[in-house]
Automatic annotation (TrEMBL), chain A:
Taxonomic placement: Bacteria, Bacillati, Bacillota, Bacilli, Bacillales
Gene3D superfamilies: 3.40.50.2300
The entry's keywords: Amino-acid transport, Signal, Transport
Signal sequence bounds: 1-25
Domain of life the protein comes from: Bacteria
Family: Belongs to the leucine-binding protein family.
Pfam families: Peripla_BP_6
PROSITE patterns named in the record: PROKAR_LIPOPROTEIN
Protein name: ABC transporter substrate-binding protein
Alphabetized InterPro entries for the sequence: BCAA_transport, Leu-bd, Leu_Ile_Val-bd, Peripla_BP_I
TrEMBL record, chain B:
One cellular component (GO) term of this entry: plasma membrane
UniProt organism field: Lysinibacillus antri
Name of this chain's protein: Branched-chain amino acid ABC transporter permease
Entry keyword annotation includes Transferase: no
CDD domains named in the record: TM_PBP1_LivM_like
Amino acid sequence: MTEKKTLKRFASVFLTSSLIVGALAGCGSKEEGTSTDSGGSTSDDTSEVIKIGANLELSGAVASYGSSIGKGAELAVEEINAAGGIDGKKIELVKVDNKSENSEATNAAIKLATQDKVAAMIAPATSGNVIATAQIANQYKIPTVTASGTAPNVTENEDGSINDFVFRTCFIDPFQGVVAANFATEELKAKNVAIYADNSSDYAKGLAAAFKEQIEANGGTVVKEEAYVADDVDFKSTLTNIKSANPDFVFIPGYYEEVGLIVKQARELGIDVPLMGADGWDSPTLVELAGKDALNNTFITNHYSSQDPDETIQSFVDAFEAKFSEAPNAFHALGYDTVYYIVDAIKRAGSADGEAIQKALAETTDLSLITGTFSVDEKHNPVKSATVLEYVDGNQQFNSKVNP
Amino acid sequence: MKKSKAFWGFLVLALVIYAVVQGMISGGMLDLYYQNILIQMCINVMLAVSLHIVIGITGQFSIGHAGFMAVGAYVSAIVTMKLGLPLIVAILLGAVISALAGLLVGIPTLRLKGDYLAIATLGFAEIIRIIFLNVDYVGGAAGMVVMNMTTWTYAFVAVVITILVIANFTNSRHGRGCISIREDEIASDAMGINTTYYKVIAFTIGAFFAGVAGAIYSHNFFIIQPTTFNFLKSFDILIYVVLGGLGSLSGSVIAAIFLTVVSAYLSNFPETRMIIYSLVLIIVMLYRPTGLMGTKEITSLFKFGKKGGSKV
């Protein structure tokens, strides 16, 4: 009886210890693996390979953003390596998953910085996760570029200081408001505009404020300013108010869920002036909610359009479709551009040293990429054009590019 | 006498571990990557152990633990970032407020049992999350930026205190009261044990240490967002406890460490990461249906031959 018990105890001790040893061995072999790896890369660094880390949302809530950026980046790396790399050195993309969680984003950034010893990093897709990596980037002096983190506080801290090593390929949220205002006055000749904004998101509020400021600077008048909150479904009374003010243009920053209903109800009430929004509208659901007819004469600003007649864009679209057999969306294009942005800086810096690349990134001027030609301003934001798309019978059509 | 022996033994072990790791850090053998994994282990161990006292010891099925973590994280972040007080004050305040939240939730909900309690606690965690989501003072959905102040020392000391308090609680009169509730609530009620009182005490202690873990979490990862503390986080913690073996303190600790290492290691394989992680869970549960340790403690395993080796 006691012997049996001892045996059982032996067995459980054996199991647990083998488990722990297994875990440690896993840990150890990884340590070994990466250390030989990184050891190899430090010697390779100067001769053959430049590592670019990609800290992306490959699983979890916003996996579609991260994996899209990853695909775009892969294509870019493939192209650059096929064209001979950077001064003969090949690029290696080191992808790490951050599960769409900010703690995992920090871990991934630390891993890329200390274990893989990358020269530069592609930061996560969402602004919160980028902020989770910013301090690591600054601490290890690794230039970090986010493809789609649009919140202003990604590069600029609350106290106005700049995150030295953090950059982005996309424009910031309020910029779309400025573009929409310029488009309204220049292309649509709108004078009396109305704003109908989602009051429950920072994104929409930022856009509305920027739009108002710019439209007034352009000599327009805001005749009516109304707000809704997310999850509202009946907008008719407010829309009647807007209609009575007789605007010749309505700006509706918000997300597609509510906007779809707003557009539909606005058209039902006889508001037939141009309506405009931003990238928050960009979803197939919008067409389902609003209906194809109601969406005619509406516009959105976006990062890029796959229907842009521009030659470089079309060749990118073809290359992308050949590799992944799907049409590239804005995230694919931004991921692709991010790699070219970093590579351009490494080429100009002439070395894979973090501080040199950081300086080159900050000095980028007139770099021509898929999502526009841009220069970097003192807040590390690209000054670039936005694409205006028009809905025609439920399809997005390229309308024009608007420069800042 | 026995108890105090185990107490000192644990303390010596903790000191040795601390000295070794600290030595390796100052010797440059552990860079930030490993330090960060160690801190994360400490956070997960604290979370696991603090839920262990609710589920493993008292037998109350709570799946809203991330809510208490959120309270600790946000309160401590406000204390350091908005009020400018030192981290140690922040950790204590975060934990105390979290314990108060535990008390507040525990008194009405602990009258419920089983599935009903689970749903009530889940609801509580969501309420906490939605509150933080809608308060602009803490940044709303965009989250709150927090300075990195945690060091390995903070995390380790916190974890040692957590384990000591909970181990001693378990062995105390109160702990036995809680265990009797786990075994049979009606019987212990009939024996004159004030079941509601013990349940609320266990729940509040669990909330307190979840608050400590939250505070250390928020000061280690630069930003806290309400989405971090969603119900999936609660399930992560629940997995540590169940995988380690319901009722085993050392089991929770081992499972938390084990899964943190697995998760960190798998980040090298982004495409298959979650598949492998889930497979590990399934395999462990298939071969060890009662969890890694069952209801045993690791100390009881080493008492071969000794007569009447009492469990710690």
